[in-house]
């Protein structure tokens, strides 16, 4: 069990822990000089023989050091709320209580200290104050102990109460990747760098490799202590000290607020969706207000984008997105605290719902439905169908692994969920949604044919833009591949079309083609340029060029260079000449091909380069070879 103190400055938190444990802890010289706790203190004690070590985290009570208190409050099992009998409930009593409630710490005990300084009536008055303070919240039934660290009154009873609470602490799940938020880093002579923190999930063993975040540096666990005892393994819920090493790893690189993670969990983020609760005593919170975010042991600046309205009233909850100025680590369910921009008061807190929040459509009904499901269920299997049902572009399983801290090997996918393989990795889709996307794509392709009847079809990128489907390029390619394999979409070169689609020329095009066709048929291997055809027929160059390109998409013409087109029949005759030359005197030389056609060298090179692009020939130096797998030489492979 890990116990954390809470309460106002000078209410006797440190003295009480010393009375409970018989230890002074690792107080710093400046703390002893000033007589106050400035930073976190750590103690370990066996409260009862055979009960095992209990870890204690002593937090500062001064308002200037609330950020240190927050770093120590993460991951504790029980809060020991300390209230002095002479002062009673004070500002930091209220703030610390609000913080531990927002952090969802499961259990609480109240210690009324310094009872030796006051009369019995005063103690009863303080008890009533505390009952009123706790009554609206989750700790309304928390036991209250009256103690004195000076006389020892009530200390034994408090120790027995803590032992009883230790038996009630639920063991944290060892599932998922290991996570530790670093609260201290120091060097030990003969050992090297040591970092400490509370293990938030998973388990770790000596010689395991971890990632130091946010830098991503790989480190190795050389040794470890769990609950202040040497061990080979540490578990979630324990205070852990790790002796780590890594290439060029220096103590100056490690600070409070960083984290150590199982390597597959490492994914720094700066955009996090949360469920935000504003404290009842606060003023109305406005959209995009700056705040301090305390997450794990890290304190960062962020803007809060409210997702369900322009403002949040005191005591209310709302989905919000944090836009953070530095990379953080989080998984679903992590608790966080928000303080004002000057770091003087606690505004509220919340739970992480999605640490990889979207930048676009964050207020859409579909996204809000996803957040609602994430807020009302901790079960991955229950949430997944809702997330997929409101996802137009599928979900990345690697992101889900990191969001829920659930490796894919532990998943039980429902029957209506499908894993789609793409060039960029797998994507999860609802089966019905995937089928709907196929139907929508076919509909859009049919619409394209209606709008552009004189085109064979769009290429892949144009179809992706035209369809308007909110899919990544790689996912769209996989959707298209499945439709092609099923025969629902056919390809002609780079063009995509429905199987029964035929390019149709309009009446004006048909008339112009009938006038142009004799010019190309009679020209043999030396067709006219676009400008010559246009001049002969009294047409604009652009009109002739556009029709010839349409005919090229139909397969009737071939565009050799920009304004030089050849009739398909004659091009195939030229290909036959090439095949014969290759058979008689390989490899094919430019001069041999030139003499066979009776044309100039420049024109022959243009033809050969076109055949290279078609895949009939392969250039080797200044000569050509016939490709054995080409379609023109093997017409049966069409």
From TrEMBL:
GO terms for molecular function: GTP binding; GTPase activity; RNA binding; translation elongation factor activity. It comes from the Bacteria. Keywords: Cytoplasm, Elongation factor, GTP-binding, Nucleotide-binding, Protein biosynthesis. Its main location: cytoplasm. It is found in: Cytoplasm. It comes from Pseudomonas fluorescens. Translation factor necessary for the incorporation of selenocysteine into proteins. It probably replaces EF-Tu for the insertion of selenocysteine directed by the UGA codon. SelB binds GTP and GDP. One of its GO terms (biological process) is selenocysteine incorporation. Pfam families: Beta-barrel_SelB, GTP_EFTU, GTP_EFTU_D2, WHD_2nd_SelB, WHD_2nd_SelB_bact, WHD_3rd_SelB. The keyword Cytoplasm applies. Residues 1-171 form the Tr-type G domain. InterPro entries: Beta-barrel_SelB, EF-Tu_GTPase, EFTu-like_2, Elong_fac_SelB-wing-hlx_typ-2, G_TR_CS, P-loop_NTPase, SelB_WHD4, Small_GTP-bd. PANTHER family: ELONGATION FACTOR TU, MITOCHONDRIAL (PTHR43721:SF22), ELONGATION FACTOR TU-RELATED (PTHR43721). GO terms for cellular component: cytoplasm. This is Selenocysteine-specific elongation factor.
